[in-house]
Design goal:
Radius of gyration: 19 Å
Number of helices: 14
Distance between the termini: 40 Å
Strand order of the largest sheet: 1-2-3-6-7-8-9-10
Number of strands: 10
Bound molecules: 2-O-methyl-1,6-di-O-phosphono-D-mannitol
CATH class: Alpha Beta
Order of helices and strands: HEHHHEHHEEEHEHEHEHEHEHHH
Strand content: 5-15%
Number of domains: 1
CATH architecture: Alpha-Beta Barrel
Low-confidence stretches: none
Mean pLDDT: 98
């Protein structure tokens, strides 16, 4: 398969990406919230339960894994990447080493992980990965994001993407403008514009073939502490407008992060965007919390109750599958939940 074909397969109509790449620290927070011990056995058990769900075949085009997970064998025998591929989904891997303090800047980060990346990529390909992910993080405050943070993160994202294509995998480019803060939707629009522009400048300089990439952006949305709430329609209009103006047409697929939105908000907003999507972009989800929150709660209630955990996951995957076609509704949400 060409990189372009893989990028389209991951985000095929009606499907999206499951972001199950929580690093050990992040999964620790998630498990703490449900009183589950953060040990390898439990991490495998939760993820394997999701990857064995019936929704995988119909609604999931790709799964982003963490280094530990891509090396694990399921308790039934096959490796985790084999289990994912069996459902027709593409296994992928998070390859960044996290957002680290950016020297010379106050409280901003740059994502690290370029040293030794070429060698790590070779190994991940052997383990079955066909796409990768790298996340840059930008916080909106009076002083940030600074041009130092926007430029350094874009440079790292582009060098990462070039190495990944050299290794014959599709890079997911994830520049996340965080929802934290009291900024309004227009500020988010402006910052997202600046961030995307700089990313695509650098990607061009580093000769990345955009046809073989996937963009994983934030939606254009007010900060979580903003008093002026925006309607779903306004979020959809501004998000699509921002993407149309700042993402080159060669990019085949755009898969949003959920970024702290509730599961329903994430489905509702994605649906509205797809209802008005008149671009050629395949627009879908690449959700972590937006797909897993309810399933995680069930896992916390009873780890052995696979049926309930899978039921919760299947429902969210199905709802987001509908949203990726602009076919979700509150009625269907209730009908299928029943
Ligand atoms: C699943 O969380 C991912 C990993 O985060 P850490 O490296 O901090 O552990 C994260 O990159 C995720 O893929 C995206 O942020 C999307 O997840 P949400 O929950 O925002 O949809």
């Amino acid at each position: 398969m060409t990189l372009n074909e893989i990028a389209k397969k991951m985000c095929a109509k009606g499907k999206g990406i499951l972001a199950a790449d929580e690093s050990t620290g992040t999964i620790a927070k998630r498990f703490k919230s449900i009183n589950v011990e953060n040990v390898e056995k439990n991490r495998l058990s939760f993820r394997q339960t999701l990857f064995n769900s019936s929704a995988m075949k119909d609604f999931i085009g790709g799964v982003i894994l963490f280094d530990e997970t891509i090396r694990q064998k399921t308790t039934q025998g096959p490796s985790i990447p084999e289990l994912i591929s069996k459902h027709g989904a593409v296994p992928g891997i998070k390859v960044d080493k996290g957002a680290k303090l950016l020297a010379g800047s106050i409280d901003e980060t740059v994502t690290e992980g370029l040293d030794g990346l070429r060698e790590r990529l070779r190994e991940y390909y052997e383990l079955g990965a066909r796409f990768t992910k790298w996340r840059a993080v930008y916080k909106i405050t009076d002083k940030s994001p600074s041009s130092q943070s926007i430029k350094s993160n874009a440079h790292a994202l582009a060098r990462y993407a070039a190495l990944v294509q050299e290794a014959k995998m599709v890079p997911i480019i994830e520049p996340e403008v965080l929802m934290d803060g009291s900024h309004n939707i227009d500020k988010c629009y402006q910052v997202t514009t600046n961030v995307l522009n700089e990313c695509y400048n650098e990607l061009e300089i580093h000769k990345v073939d955009l046809k073989g990439t996937v963009l994983k952006p934030n939606m254009v949305i007010p900060g979580s502490g903003c008093k002026d709430k925006s309607s779903t329609k306004e979020i959809a209009n501004k998000t699509l407008d921002c993407l149309r103006k700042n993402v080159p047409a060669d990019v085949p697929s755009i898969a949003f992060l959920s970024g702290g939105q509730s599961e329903i908000e994430a489905s509702k907003n994605l649906n509205e965007i797809n209802k008005i999507n008149d671009s050629n972009f395949l627009i879908t989800f690449s959700y972590g919390r937006g797909l897993q929150a309810s399933a995680l709660k069930e896992f916390g209630k009873n780890q052995e109750n696979i049926e309930n955990i899978q039921k919760a996951f299947n429902h969210r995957a199905r709802m987001n599958g509908l949203s990726s076609k602009g076919e979700w509704s509150e009625d269907l949400e209730k009908e299928f939940a029943a």
